[in-house]
Design a protein that fits this description.
49% of the residues lie in helices and 14% in strands. The chain is of the alpha/beta class and 605 residues long. The chain folds into four domains: 70 residues, no CATH class; 173 residues, 3-Layer(aba) Sandwich (Rossmann fold); 84 residues, Dihydrodipicolinate Reductase, domain 2 (2-Layer Sandwich), CATH 3.30.360.80; 159 residues, no CATH class. The strands form three sheets. The chain has a six-stranded parallel beta sheet with strand order 1-6-5-2-4-3, sandwiched between helices. A five-stranded mixed beta sheet has the order 13-12-15-11-14, with helices on one face. The chain starts with a helix and ends with a strand.
Length: 605
């Protein structure tokens, strides 16, 4: 941004602007106040008669606002408010009786908050706590009830995770693995993979706090929090290992705790005050900073129910107020631009249609055959490609010993040894380059069997290509890529809408005789074909030039409009687009037509 203070002022206005565009999103009329707020970011002529304008005009205004609005031009940020399909979260809390050994130690050190929340870490019990802690037997019982289901378990300390895993091995024999900061990255990956295996993998992965950062385990939907972190963001990180895109089931969060203890205070604060288990909690850290003193007091004195009740009420009110403020301050323009709403749907449809289309498979079957490559069916979705003695030349990417390929992405995803062929695959590109650059096949003679036409009738098929050359900076390929034009004329020099589905080859001697006998007629056919192709080329050039002018003129107007609110838009940027329009029109107007291939077809019913 050109100026920091201007940036700050512009960002302060987004709440007012976000409120003003609500009618545009809902299809309602804009009030004078709304129009006044929008007028600071849009041209006056775009707002004239906006309430009676068409949906297309309103959409154009909305996109203009998106384009000119602060960080909305540069920043992409999607929140759950704008993305659907996330799972629900359910809390299952399990109250347990506090062991006398823990109660004695906790009473002696009430000021030690960390000890109050994780009494198993006390030096006097650090090696024996698994024998007295009821959470261990509860944990084993819980895993038995969830037999066949993957369970992620997180606790604060690495030694706790190791000891819990050892107790599980001795007492229950359940397949488990651990994940902690003392392990190398390779060992962590190995543990995560063992947990991910569906058949012979571990049922439970026991992590230290490091497991709550970065790793994704959305194939599991049961989470056991053996203890609770004091920081709300860390709790959200833990739950986020399972609650993420790709999770197919509701996330079940199991929390064991000791009744009437600091653990219950923290559990109630999260659940009743912040609603942090069943919903994401963007206010968590702010509320924690505001209530930290009272929270610590209640953790140190859980028997003081009045203060605990006060903590819950104060937290809930503060959370509600902050959440309301965040909702009012949501940058809806930024969210709308990030979501791609109204622009992504068609693109996704095109991607899916291209994935499901058999066009590439059918095309490559014929192309491989013409190049002398054998394509055999391996199974329903795979083929085996082999080189043969008839190959025109080597094909880069093709294994000499053969290779298994598929045109279906799901198959390639499941089978690592199978090569996935798409239009962008290098071997496909090389094969097409060989076809288009090799002279073989660019002129041909063939026989057809059309009983509706007399014997000796003939047609001349010509393939022309309209193309131009320009500096790369003009981006000519966006507007006029090399464009094929096919023309077919008959013996009467008339255009023929002819599609040959079956053609028979002609012996070279007979082909030469036909061409020599009809040489003068074929020259006239070729001349007429070129004339027809020129007419088509002129129409194509006019259409593409008009499309280019419309697109780049809109871009030129956009840059000029942006420059009014953002001096960072340079004059030379605007000049570049203006010159691009002039130069492209000149280059496209001078695009030339050249003959790429010709085929002479004679009827022999």
């Amino acid at each position: 941004f050109h100026n920091y203070h201007s940036f700050v002022n512009e960002e302060k206005q987004y709440s007012q602007l976000a409120q003003a565009i609500n009618p545009l999103l809902s299809g309602d009329s804009l009030s004078d106040e709304d129009i006044g707020a929008i007028a600071q970011f849009a041209d006056k002529d775009m707002l004239q008669g906006i309430n009676t304008a068409s949906t297309t005009q309103k959409t154009k205004l909305l996109h203009t606002l998106l384009d000119r609005h602060g960080t909305g031009r540069l920043l992409f940020r999607n929140s759950r408010a704008g993305v659907k399909g996330f799972p629900k979260r359910q809390l299952f809390s399990h109250g347990l009786r506090l062991p006398i050994e823990y109660a004695t130690l906790l009473a002696s050190e009430p000021e030690n908050i960390q000890l109050q929340l994780t009494p198993e870490r006390h030096p006097d019990l650090v090696n024996t706590w698994t024998d007295i802690d009821p959470r261990v037997d509860w944990f084993i019982s819980q895993l038995k009830s969830l037999k066949g289901k993957k369970v992620l378990t997180i606790c604060a300390n690495a030694s706790t995770a190791l000891q819990l895993s050892e107790a599980l091995r001795i007492k229950a024999g359940t397949r488990s693995t651990v994940f902690h900061e003392g392990m190398s990255i390779v060992d962590r990956d190995r543990a995560a993979n063992y947990f991910a295996q569906s058949d012979d993998g571990a049922q439970v992965l026991i992590c230290s706090e490091i497991g709550s950062e970065g790793r994704n385990f959305q194939f599991a939907h049961h989470l056991i929090l053996f203890d609770l972190p004091l920081v709300p963001d860390l709790l959200e990180q833990r739950i986020g290992r399972l609650d993420r895109i790709g999770q197919k089931y509701d996330v079940c969060i199991h929390v064991p705790y000791f009744d009437m203890s600091a653990q219950q205070v923290l559990l109630d604060w999260y659940h009743q005050g912040l609603g942090a288990f069943e919903h994401t909690c963007p206010t968590g850290m702010t509320v924690y900073e505001e209530t930290q003193e009272l929270l610590h007091e209640c953790i140190q004195h859980p028997e003081n129910t009045d203060r605990c009740f006060q903590l819950i009420n104060q937290t809930a009110l503060l959370h509600k107020e902050l959440k309301k403020r965040l909702e009012q301050g949501r940058d809806k323009l930024l969210e709308l631009n990030s979501s791609g709403h109204g622009r992504v749907e068609q693109f996704l449809t095109q991607i899916n249609d291209a994935e499901d289309s058999p066009t590439l498979e059918l095309f490559m079957t014929r192309l491989f055959d013409s190049l002398g490559i054998l394509q055999e069916e391996h199974d329903e979705s795979c083929y085996l490609l082999k080189s043969t003695e008839k190959m025109i030349g080597p094909l880069p990417g093709l294994d000499e010993e053969g290779m298994t390929v598929t045109y279906e992405r799901p198959t390639a995803t499941l089978l690592e040894h199978v090569h996935f062929l798409s239009w962008d695959h290098p071997m496909i590109q090389h094969a097409m380059d060989i076809l288009t650059t090799d002279v073989t096949g660019k002129s041909a003679v063939a026989l057809c069997q059309d009983k509706s036409k007399p014997a000796g009738s003939y047609w001349l098929e010509c393939l022309f290509v309209l193309s131009a050359k320009a500096d790369k900076g003009l981006q000519l390929a966006r507007f006029l890529p090399p464009t094929p034009i096919k023309v077919c004329v008959d013996a009467n020099l008339q255009l023929a809408d002819k599609h040959f589905t079956r053609l028979d080859p002609v012996l070279p001697k007979m082909g030469n005789q036909l061409i020599n006998a009809l040489k003068s007629q074929l020259e006239k056919c070729l001349e007429h074909s070129h004339q027809h192709a020129e007419k088509s080329a002129q129409a194509i050039k006019s259409q593409r030039i008009a499309q280019m002018n419309e697109m780049l003129s809109d871009e030129l107007a956009r840059l000029k409009g942006l420059q009014q609110v953002n001096p960072a838009i340079r004059d030379d940027e605007i000049e570049h687009v203006a010159k691009q329009i002039i130069n492209l029109e000149k280059v496209m107007s001078n695009a030339k037509l050249h003959l790429e291939a010709v085929r002479f077809v004679v009827n022999n019913p």
